[in-house]
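Input record (one chain):
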Amino acid sequence: MQLEISSIFAIIGEIVVYTIIFLLIAAIIGSLLIGYSFKTEKFVFPYFMLFSITVLETLVKALFRLGGMNDSIVDKVGIDIKNKISITKFRNTHVNNRLIFFPQCLRAVDCPSKLSPEGMKCLDCGRCEIATAQKTAESLGYQVFIVPGSSFIRRLVRKHKPEAILGVGCMTEIKAGLEMCEKMKLFGVGLVLDKAGCVSTVLNWDDFYEFIELDRTAD
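The corresponding structure, as predicted from the sequence alone:
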């Protein structure tokens, strides 16, 4: 009996060792593919990279730091891959069934807007680009919201029941937002701020307008 128990533990030990070796090899390969994709903007084996980023995130980021690279590259490539996977389905939804979420930190420091149950209400004061962006997007059929946090987004999604979401935010917020979209069965796309922070953040507005204007040219 003791011999049988020892054999079972030996088998379990071998399984654990082989599993660790497999995960380490997968993380190394995933890290190399992520680094290549970041430099070339070409996605090779995107679903394998996504597996590496989601399941082996801690290990992959540790390998990046070990190699003297910024581990935020992992999040950036992960967002780019998810955008690429979702974009076709996003475009196939009717524009009236899409919501756009801007973070409140994108407003001017002296913004006079007030908080409402549907987020910050833009007063078109001309101190930032949000008013123009909101008018342009709404003319295409989007619903646009300026929100102070993820709790607002969840509540507005439950209220308006969209099929797709375009989110603007820092890398951490976009990453969490895309994960939320997956859980809520929504087609999510994210635009990452050029400059993050609590106030006076910066978005590449040309990228934003180019993205939404594709709906106009598609018509």
